[in-house]
Amino acid sequence: MQIHLKTLGCRLNEAELESWAEGFQAKGHHLTDSVENADLLVVNTCAVTQEAVKKSRQIIRRIHRNNNKAKLVVSGCYASLDEKIKQDIPGIDLLINNQQKDQLVDITLNELNFESMPAISTEPGEASIFKRGRNRAFIKVQDGCRYRCTFCIVTVARGEERSRTEADIINDINLFQQQGIQEIVLTGVHLGGYGSEIDSCLYKLIKSILSNTDIPRIRLASLEPWDLPENFFSLFSDARLMPHMHLPLQSGSDSVLKRMARRCKTNDFKKLVQQARNEIPNFNLTTDIIVGFPGETEEEWQESINFIKEISFSHIHIFTYSKRDGTKAATLSNQVDSAIKKQRSKQLHALSNSMRKTELTNNIGTTHAVLWETKNNNAWVGYTENFMRVELNNESATEFENQISKVKITHVSKNAEHCIVELI
Ligand code: SF4
Fold first, then answer.
1. Whole-angstrom distance, CA of residue 301 vs CA of residue 309
2. H or E stretch including 184?
3. Residue 189, ligand 1, Cβ within 6 A
4. Would the CB of 142 count as within 6 Å of ligand 1?
5. Which of 143, 264, 287, 361 is most exposed, with the fewest beta carbons within 10 Å of its own?
6. Which atom of ligand 1 is nearest to the CA of 263?
7. Quick check: 373 and 383 in contact, CB under 8 A?
8. Is the pTM here over 0.85, yes or no?
9. Which domains can be identified in the chain, with CATH numbers?
10. Intra-chain end-to-end CA distance of the chain, in Å
11. pLDDT digits over 296-305, tens only?
């Protein structure tokens, strides 16, 4: 989806716009400077003076006039103060007041039903789980995929598997480190297939990165839960390989997985996760689920929910199935009704939130090394080795950005989205 963002007013409004931009991009959407080409328009209004109010109203009207096919979301101070704005100005699809601004991206995608599948199924893992930043870089190690999952357009879009050489990859990592990067994320369309055509494998690649670079943190992006080389989990005994894996399950029902032509059925997935949890201390597991795949019956959905509960994930990236021309799934009969898809997605979001709260709560009292990324109001925000988001309340002028510190988790935040820590 193409999104045009517009703001008026203070620097805070601009900062919010930036964070929405990152949020939408992380969910696989694109930003555009053109109002006319956008599918979604978002305006952050201002009410500091009468002039600002007038300007906010003018911009909303103009932007809607220039593209009345796009959905229009309005937020900011003016939108929060004037309750009649929706009646007064035509074309507004969604109003988001200042209290909900932090969740603007999620609310918009949910309410306007935009949370559909990305073009390439493996993108959600790398794009939505990790954000690029001044301390984190993505290293693409391979492209293409030899499989034919029926919802995925990747084999058409990206072709056969091709791996980069170890030397090239190591060179990139060392260059990034010289620029101050502390953490790299190895990515690939079918990351587990790395090296298949150059007589190598992901195990060898990671071994070589560990031996030939000093980068403090190495992460793996989305990894299909099959084709993992032998002894793979033993690699995590090196503390520089971060104990988090994003293994896309896609459905917890074997008959749905069969229609998806996935190579990993629920029993295989369960065994893999048990092995990872046994071998990797503090292991954190996240996943992708597609809701409403063609023909998904109530019984299959219930099976899926039960399996997801049994495994338990700290985060689920939820995608509502949408037809993608050129894929086999688009030709399947029994496409699921959109009201049912919406209701299932809501149910899974609620389950995912409660599982996250449990996972975060289970970590209270544990100690971690955190790489600090940014300061949000008076709190430093960073991630533990196992990719839990944590915040440190710190009013002093100490700069923590791009530093790694030892912390202890004291409690879970009020919104149950991250943990609060203290330095140790
Ligand atoms: S394994 Fe399946 S979902 Fe993953 S990239 Fe290949 S075809 Fe797409």
1. 12
2. strand 183-188
3. yes
4. no
5. 361
6. 1
7. yes
8. no
9. 2-111 (3.40.50.12160), 123-359 (3.80.30.20), 367-423 (2.40.50)
10. 44
11. 999 999 999 9
